[in-house]
Design a protein that fits this description.
The protein is mostly helical. It has 2 domains: 63 residues, no CATH class; 74 residues. The protein contains 7 helices and 2 strands. Strands 1-2 form a two-stranded antiparallel sheet. Helix 5 crosses helix 7. The longest helix is centred in the last third of the chain and has 13 residues.
Length: 142
């Protein structure tokens, strides 16, 4: 685990001590053990009896970076007013008003699931062209 990644490990992140797991080399819970042991006095550890060795483990977290999106103001500029009103109404059913505007401005990154929801709302609002988010970033999905 790189030094940058070790700084990113959330405090109180649940760790896995199962060295015998075939997925230990790609599981965030296992990879975070060493950096957390070096920096923390107290650790939050998963019960090894509850962890199932392999990718079917309910606590497995893949260490591959995930693409997050930020902002969708650019989408609004490419929509007709009626399309935007429907788009906004659809998303307000999922997000609160504040959350909607924070996500639209790009204050918070949209997970892949939230990106799908926004793109579905676009299509439901009648936008047929492929619109992209304002910017993208890769990050670890803790």
């Amino acid at each position: 685990m790189s030094k940058i990644l070790s700084k990113e490990v959330p405090e109180n992140y649940a760790l896995c001590l199962r060295e015998d797991c075939p997925c230990a080399s790609t599981c965030l819970r296992r990879l975070a053990c060493k950096p957390m042991m070096e920096r923390s006095t107290y650790l939050r550890v998963l019960n090894p009896d509850r962890c199932v060795p392999g990718a079917s483990c309910p606590y497995y977290r893949n260490s591959a970076p995930v693409v997050y999106a930020r902002g969708f103001k650019g989408m609004q500029e490419r929509m007709l007013p009626a399309q935007y009103q429907k788009f906004r109404a659809l998303l307000l059913n999922h997000f609160s008003q504040n959350t909607f505007y924070e996500r639209r401005r790009g204050d918070f990154a949209l997970s892949p699931e939230e990106q799908k929801m926004v793109l579905q709302a676009l299509h439901q609002a009648g936008v047929m062209e492929d619109l992209s988010f304002d910017r993208y970033e890769e990050s670890i999905c803790w």
